[in-house]
Amino acid sequence: MQISELSDRSGLTVQTIKFYIREGLLPKGSAVSATRSDYDGRHLERLRLISALREVGELPISAIQEIVGAIEDDGVSLHDLFAAAQHAVGPHVAAPHDPHWRAAREDVDALVGELGWTVGAGAPSRDLLAHTFVALRRLGYPITLKDLRPYVKAAAEVAEHEVGRVPAGTPRARTVHSLLVSTILYEQVLTALHRMAQENASARRFDHA
Amino acid sequence: MQISELSDRSGLTVQTIKFYIREGLLPKGSAVSATRSDYDGRHLERLRLISALREVGELPISAIQEIVGAIEDDGVSLHDLFAAAQHAVGPHVAAPHDPHWRAAREDVDALVGELGWTVGAGAPSRDLLAHTFVALRRLGYPITLKDLRPYVKAAAEVAEHEVGRVPAGTPRARTVHSLLVSTILYEQVLTALHRMAQENASARRFDHA
Alpha-carbon dihedral of residues A33, A39, A43, A45, nearest 10 degrees? Predict the structure, then answer.
């Protein structure tokens, strides 16, 4: 297809597509003449991934360059590729140098060990959880593995579903795209439904209290 | 207890406590002498709720005044009180005047109806979910009730646990406090664990892909 069709189908302007090519995010099309190049479905797929990373994950160009580089490097496993992309998305919470934070972060590491989960030592999710532990303790809510069980169970079931729904043989770029959409957008779906479910559960228990 | 002890136990300065009294967020203590008042456990509990609303929910004083007023008004059911507080917390996403958003919001309302959940017509969670539906559709992910099932199930189980863990006979202020901590902080726990669970599920499926 020509660049105008690629623009129509991706919803991105020709100018934006040319910018992504200059920045090395999108491979050049194959030259048909001195002024025309031909693009295919892989270009469209790549553009959709870049859009998702930019708009939904709000990632800077440099982070997207890294992810795109890893997609093309077959030496990087699909898991390492997804983990790198998920870590780039963040959120990156500040890790203050204080004993409360240190203790919370150690508890998180112990929890991950106890669950036997494979989670990178530098995963932002570890810091995010530690950050939440600090806030909960400050408000007088202790944290034990027993308290966390329902959350661990819910998170694991949703994640298994998300990773499991990617069809076998899906191209690397498409797989990472789909998993990141789960990380960012379906996470918001879960948050919104959690709030609704709370309101519903509260109505059932406390409507006349 | 004197205001100095209330300050120690709440972690708030005497100045902040006096500010909350002036703003009507905290009832005055009972006068012991011309310059001294006596405070009790209810004052401490109230201060913890205000702190949670301010620091964790980042609510403005005016919203906290409303919630505190509703706590003292026995004509407001505990459920209405919690729903009002949860709605005040947000997040409040913009509801643009475009057909995609309108269709998504109608789908959300239909979904809530199908689930039979009690969720206020003006609940920000409805808009948040609609917002996410728009983004998912733009990326080419259709939304069906079947796709949402695992999220609905996880959200409902977690919410039932959260509402169920409040002991019977807990005072209104404490109940709202506890539920809001679930809304804000345990939601972050769920988010962090979801990211970890994704990374773990990805490692198991894609480590050698």
Answer: 170
